[in-house]
Amino acid sequence: MTATRYQRADLGGTFLPVGQMLQIDRVCEVAEERIVCEMDLDAGHWAFPMHFPGDPIFPGSLLIEAAGQVVALWAWDAGLRGRPRMAKVSAEFETPVLADDVNLTFSATVRRRRNICLGRVEIHAGARRIGTVEPVIVVLSDDSA
Prior knowledge:
The chain is mainly β. Helices cover 12% and strands 41% of the residues. It contains 1 helix and 7 strands.
């Protein structure tokens, strides 16, 4: 089992989004079919003031985006290069991510079939389970239309 670590500043060299759409702050572990990533949060995160003002929660769509980025990072570490696209996703959330949550952990298992990566991403805020996202990421080669 080989551990690989990336910080947010290192992720610019991958094929992930940039700026505020990059959801991942660090990759803690990549090993065989497993990847663990973290996202830092605080009450000042750009999404909280806009998503239900007065009763802020972190948008589920951004949690789904983050889970897709986790699987895409696994694909990158596994040597796939190109343009990742989320082809399919299912998600179940149990509790909301609140403005006083400090850190989210995304623990994923990924199965690969050629350029298709099927992930199961468990999301936690501390010990509290947030939910599960199952993204299917297809990495298109750079020469495909």
